[in-house]
Write a structure and sequence with these properties.
globular; Carbamate kinase; about 450 residues; six-stranded antiparallel beta sheet; binds aspartic acid
Length: about 450
């Protein structure tokens, strides 16, 4: 069995759905299918929850969601059935929206998860009809009936044991989905959605469909997990920055995991953890160009270059703390980290010398750099050391193999970059990466230079 996940852009229009459905019809082994909401929908639903939102804007968003799905329905051969499904869903969505004003029995976060689930509900209802159009025998199942979670609405934690037990039970009573299954039979379900012990709908956090798909793949013992997206695999670097960047044929779990933590928006780090544990090869491919083979993530790729891929994370903040107290004194770093932890600041890279320590903070997700490094944190640190903060830096990660055992790699790297000011270097903590900071304005040129000399 192959578990295939189609992301928002792969189901974002009738053409996209039809292309994705053809991919499924093409290989009868792809009989467990997980999809996201159509692209844009989750963002629009979230926007509807965020205040202040005026009535007109809310109506406009609803109209957009409704139009997107009705438009797909109108092009489907099962137009009548698909339209009815969308209309019913939209009706329930409206009823749910009006409930917020009238009842406060449901907690806000629970209400939001219920609202977001309409995105996945709409896309799966429609996609089921598009699959039927291709003569596939579709069984649509609600993901909340499989994925058991705790009640942390918005980023629920999955109860693996309970989830696996449900899936195994389902398989044992649905022979059609086993390895000896009936060709043409497809199980379709939502990504991102779960349910708590009381059966209340939860969501797994943004981008959680990959994680759902990996869970299904592990529980079902799939021979491969396919992630269908709008790019033809994992690239040697962002092709918008380096036009000669190309899709990688094979990459190891370790390298891909490293890449996902350095912001190479391929797969969520939690997803990588699951597939690596279960040793399930992953294929990342484009539903727009399914004939290209995409990238395979496997345990032992045939080729293991020292430098495989380059990634960049913008909006990094560098904080440098100096103190003579640090010289042969125990507890200095512990003090620094406990202050940062009290203020819920997460540190990415750290380097230390005798009397100073430099740390990087990822401020990309914050509206303003200043929010994270509040006056209070700076004051607390200033009490026992000098603090210097630099904004607008970029973190460049060079990802590959045996980097901590390859002699000369850092010499080669930094001589290539002799014209740039490198702010902080982390080398040796991981076999799979060397990373450093540069000015944000230099980041593109640095990546172009590195790509040309190491990857070509
Ligand atoms: N639809 C959800 C989101 O946009 C889940 C996903 O696409 O993975 O975050
Ligand atoms: Mg998505």
């Amino acid at each position: 069995m192959i578990v295939s996940k189609f992301g928002g852009t792969s189901v974002g229009s009738y053409e996209a759905m039809s292309r994705s459905a053809n991919i499924i019809a093409d290989n009868p082994q792809r009989n467990w299918v997980v999809i996201s909401a159509t692209s844009g929908t989750t963002n629009e639903l979230l926007r509807m929850c965020s205040l202040p939102l005026n009535m007109d804007e809310g109506d406009g968003l609803l109209e957009q969601i409704s139009r997107r799905h009705l438009d797909i329905a109108s092009q489907c051969s099962f137009k009548k059935e698909a339209t009815k499904a969308v209309e019913e869903c939209m009706c329930n969505l409206l009823a749910h929206l009006s409930k917020q004003q009238t009842s406060n029995k449901q907690s806000e976060t629970e209400w939001i998860d219920n609202l977001l689930a309409f995105g996945e509900n709409l896309s799966t209802q429609l996609f089921a009809w598009v699959l039927r159009e291709k003569n596939l025998d579709v069984q649509l199942e609600w993901a909340g009936d499989f994925i058991c979670t705790d009640s942390r609405f918005g980023s629920a934690e999955v109860d693996l044991e309970a989830t696996f037990a449900k899936l195994w039970h389902f398989l044992s009573s649905n022979e059609g989905f086993r390895s000896d299954h009936k060709p043409g039979k497809v199980l379709l379900t939502q990504g991102f959605i779960g349910a708590d012990v009381e059966g209340r709908t939860t969501t797994l956090g943004r981008g959680g469909s990959d994680y759902s798909a990996a869970l299904f793949a592990e529980a079902l013992g799939a021979e491969c997990l396919e992630i269908w997206t709008d790019v033809a695999g994992i690239y040697t670097t962002d092709p918008r920055v380096v036009p000669t960047a190309h899709a990688i044929d094979e990459i190891s779990f370790d390298e891909a995991a490293e890449l996902s933590t350095f912001g190479g928006k391929v797969l969520h780090p939690a997803t990588m953890k699951l597939v690596r544990r279960a040793n399930i090869p992953v294929r990342v491919a484009s539903s727009m160009e399914p004939e290209l083979s995409g990238t395979k993530i496997v345990t032992g790729p045939l080729n293991r270059p020292v430098v495989r891929t380059l990634s960049v994370r913008q909006e990094q903040t560098l904080m440098t703390l100096h103190s003579l107290e640090m010289l042969h004194q125990p507890g200095f770093l512990a003090k620094v980290f406990s202050i940062l932890s009290e203020h819920r600041i997460s540190v990415d890279l750290v380097t230390t010398s005798e009397v100073s320590v430099s740390l990087t903070l990822d401020t990309a997700h914050k509206a303003s750099n200043k929010v994270e490094l509040s006056e209070a944190v700076l004051r607390a640190l200033n009490d026992f050391c000098d603090v210097e903060v630099e904004y607008n830096l970029a973190l460049v990660a060079v990802i590959g193999n045996a980097m901590n055992q390859t002699s000369g790699i850092s010499g080669q790297l930094f001589s290539t970059l002799k014209d740039y000011n490198i702010r902080l270097v982390c080398h040796g903590a991981s076999a799979n990466n060397v990373c450093f900071l540069v000015q944000e304005s230099d980041a593109e040129a640095v990546v172009q230079t590195l790509h040309q000399s190491f990857i070509g």
